[in-house]
Amino acid sequence: MDIKSYLADRKNAVEAFFGEYFGKAGRPAVLREAMLYSLNAGGKRIRPVLCLASYEACGGNGKEIIPYAAALEFIHTYSLIHDDLPAMDDDDLRRGKPTSHKVYGEAVAILAGDALLSEAFVVLTNPLLGPAVRPDNLFRAAGEIARASGCSGMVAGQVQDILSENSEPDEDTLQFIHRHKTAALLRASATAGALLHGGSTEIVDAIDRYGQSLGLAFQVIDDILDVEGDTAVIGKPAGSDEKKKKMTYPRMYGLDRSREIARTFVADAVAALDAIPLSVEPLRELAFHLLGRSH
Amino acid sequence: MDIKSYLADRKNAVEAFFGEYFGKAGRPAVLREAMLYSLNAGGKRIRPVLCLASYEACGGNGKEIIPYAAALEFIHTYSLIHDDLPAMDDDDLRRGKPTSHKVYGEAVAILAGDALLSEAFVVLTNPLLGPAVRPDNLFRAAGEIARASGCSGMVAGQVQDILSENSEPDEDTLQFIHRHKTAALLRASATAGALLHGGSTEIVDAIDRYGQSLGLAFQVIDDILDVEGDTAVIGKPAGSDEKKKKMTYPRMYGLDRSREIARTFVADAVAALDAIPLSVEPLRELAFHLLGRSH
Question: Is B44:B3 a contact under the CB 8 Å cutoff?
């Protein structure tokens, strides 16, 4: 299969929904503008794509759940806006563009993030946006996504990440940060796709294990790219983790060992798919594609 | 009826849930500590009480939905933490105590707010926390609350409030701010109670009108208290709206006319209840009790 055109198709569908959903006139205009600015700043849309690919692996047509998949990108985008704030990572650039607070000021940036998180749940509690999905399946997916976002998920990882700046890396803390800050929402994105389709426990569990391993691989690869990538590819100055003394895999294990760890996580992800009798090719190709970014 | 003991009972039940829900050990400890610090900083718990009183008016037992009512206070508390940030209202005190960013720093304060908002939806998507509630009714209530919180609700009001600082008050903008910043979530709190019980359209609509009028009354009264109250009662320095040139009812209409407007809103709220054949005494008394605060 051609994974690149698979990704591009789904990315386009998700991005079209951003405009549909937030493009209507609304007051105050600057709030919607700020939300759309960050949503439209680019990105691989990997969380929505994971959700769509899992739903499709279960036999669904991804077109039926574009709004719910897009809601995952609302959550990811809110987390980036808040991460970039002066009180957090204090980044001026994100994906090569000025960050939200640089364009709209801190107050509107904080509130645009808050609104994106809220709107994710507006979408995820609206059965009318995906009538092919059984409401109880949608409800289950919404719960999974909420848990991955809160104080036992993404936010816990973000707090630990900030607390651990300038500390000597230790394995336990490093794993905690990666598992929560990045992997939690990636895992939930994959799992939500299976839940939206009403997959069996066996299938949901397998896709959950896939999502978890893929999420960990993703963050290790991101850490590696921060060391070796150039600004044009990663959209922010290379070496910024090192500058902030972030707790990363390369700092803990060096680049070679980190690459090996990423490969192992990807292999774990792919192995998890073997347990289920589904059309998992896009999920598998997606895993290898992500790994390819670091070579 | 004794509205004060009615309020105290329900306030206690909601506050007990905060400890139950967030009191367990969790990592990082500072995140849970910051969330609980702000939740436990006091307050009338008016949103949870409204939700409980509406549910009870429909014939339910409030004890069945304490977690869902408490989730409304998670959302209110997150909005206060973010409102108080240096980039927003820059307040050092809230309810007589140092604000979250003063105690935990800005990064943790922002993230504690983010986590509270997320956890509200963790609770509101978990049918196990209120087995007496039909899951589809819970789902409907969660949607109502999400819409009241997002870019067409509370956050819209907050952005407009900040944009309008130092502007000459105009009626349209003033009403927009009050309707969104405060009334939206109060309205949704009342409505959610009826939805959780599966109330008929007629009942949900009447309680919705009640909540909307009560929410508007509430903010006018708050504006009045900010002018005439003393710091001990309102928990923040009196006159802070004036200092920040916030767009308020007293600035627009003066105190006397503002008191009259508050009375009219309360009368509207009470009149909305006449349409429904329910035991609405607590809802009615609650409205008069709020009005009493400004006398």
Answer: no
